[in-house]
Design a protein that fits this description.
Layout (H helix, E strand, L loop, with lengths): L3 E3 L4 H6 L3 E5 H7 L7 E4 L8 H14 L6 E6 L1 H13 L5 E6 L2 H7 L4 E6 L2 E8 L3 E4 L9 H15 L3 H7 L5 H18 L14 H11 L3 H15 L6 H15 L8 H9 L8 E8 L2 E7 L1 H11 L1
Parallel strand pairs: 1-8, 2-3, 2-4, 4-5, 5-8
Antiparallel strand pairs: 6-7, 9-10
Helix pairs in contact: 3-4, 5-6, 5-8, 6-10, 9-10, 9-12, 10-11, 10-13, 12-13
The structure holds nicotinamide-adenine-dinucleotide.
The site of nicotinamide-adenine-dinucleotide has 29 residues, from helix 2, helix 4, helix 5 and helix 6.
Length: 313
């Protein structure tokens, strides 16, 4: 079972107890003064979630003398977490890592379940590994999070709320970020515990990601916003499978968090990227909410996917 401490005040102990810390340049600017000196800051931004950044981090670790028995730590959002976890998986054939998530998305979602990866070209998370970190969530870091990134985190929280009636109801009341983080960690941990390797119930968490990953890579919109747009388009593509009133309920719920849809989305380009999605088995896989808490899969041929996507746009 993954160790996840929430607001335990152990973040500094975890950081200073690690042999090396990886963060990004934005966080380094804000929090560098309180972080250990043995650290490396990758350039912030999804375009830096690359093998090139992996090489830079590995070089810094080698220079610093990080050894096989050592533990490293990630201090940052989902990008820093995904990249550090991947480095931890391959550095000297694998070392341990801790994660102090600083964004809403990383606290509520990406710190749970040990998926680590970097992008290759336009393919999101094309190379990666499963590697569970010890996690120290401190929600005080949300105080410095820019609004755009807060909204991105809301994207994954809204997605998870379609998987659980209790969370869905919670999202229709007064929003409390700390409570939302706790609920999402519990929900995702329960799912991952049953299916670490993403072959069963965990696949439900990929909802919105088939179209969403393509939108993210093509537009540069935030991850969470892209997932919401992905969910809106995917449910519209599959509207014939959904009960009429429920379809409109979901569409307006998603719209509330997306706001204006981007106008320049290219269905052909999304389809090309979706074809390379690693979830695919014999066609393009879409996870969709048949009802709240009832997530199902459809597999579409390239031509069906493109036709339905064009119809949904
Ligand atoms: N491993 C998983 O299970 C999983 C799940 C969902 C998403 N992801 C990945 O996570 C990434 C998105 O994560 P993200 O939204 O955290 O993006 P991110 O890590 O790029 O962070 C977004 C921005 O917010 C800044 N930031 C983060 N915390 C801050 C803070 N406390 N104060 C001020 N600025 C702060 C960062 O510097 C960055 O500029 C994507 O690469 C996505 O693929 C992984």
């Amino acid at each position: 079972m993954q160790k996840i401490a929430i607001n335990s005040g152990e973040d500094m102990k975890a950081l200073f107890g690690s042999a090396f810390v990886i963060t990004d340049t934005n966080l380094d600017r804000i929090y560098g003064g309180m972080l250990p000196k043995n650290r490396f800051a990758i350039n912030a931004g999804e375009s830096n979630k690359t093998l090139y950044s992996v090489e830079k981090v590995v070089n810094a670790m080698l220079k610093y003398g990080v050894k096989r028995g050592d533990r490293i730590a990630a201090f940052g959002g989902g990008l820093v977490g995904d990249l550090t976890g991947f480095v931890a998986s391959i550095y000297m054939r694998g070392i341990q890592w801790s994660f102090i998530p600083t964004s809403l998305l990383a606290m509520a979602d990406s710190c749970v379940g040990g998926k680590t990866a970097v992008n290759v070209g336009l393919i999101k998370n094309a190379v990666g590994a499963f590697n569970l970190p010890d996690v120290y969530v401190e929600t005080k870091y949300l105080n410095s999070l820019p609004q755009r990134e807060f909204e991105s985190g809301m994207g994954e929280i809204v997605k998870m709320s379609l998987m659980d009636a209790d969370l869905y109801e919670f999202m229709h009341g007064k929003f409390d970020a700390v409570e939302a983080v706790k609920k999402c960690i519990k929900l995702k941990s329960d799912i991952v515990e049953k299916d670490l390797s993403d072959n069963g119930p965990r696949r439900a968490l990929n909802m919105g990601h088939t179209v969403g990953h393509a939108v993210e890579m093509l537009t540069g919109l935030s991850h969470g916003k892209s997932v919401l747009i992905g969910m809106k388009l995917e449910t519209a593509m599959l509207r014939d499978l959904l009960e009429h009133n429920y379809f409109y309920e979901i569409q307006s719920y998603l719209y509330k968090y997306i706001g204006k849809m981007p106008l320049n989305l290219d269905a052909e380009a999304i389809t090309v990227i979706a074809m390379s999605d690693k979830k695919n088995k014999g066609g393009i896989s879409i996870m969709y909410p048949q009802g709240i808490g009832d997530i199902r899969e459809v597999v579409l041929s390239r031509s069906e996917f493109l036709r339905l996507l064009k119809g949904a746009m």
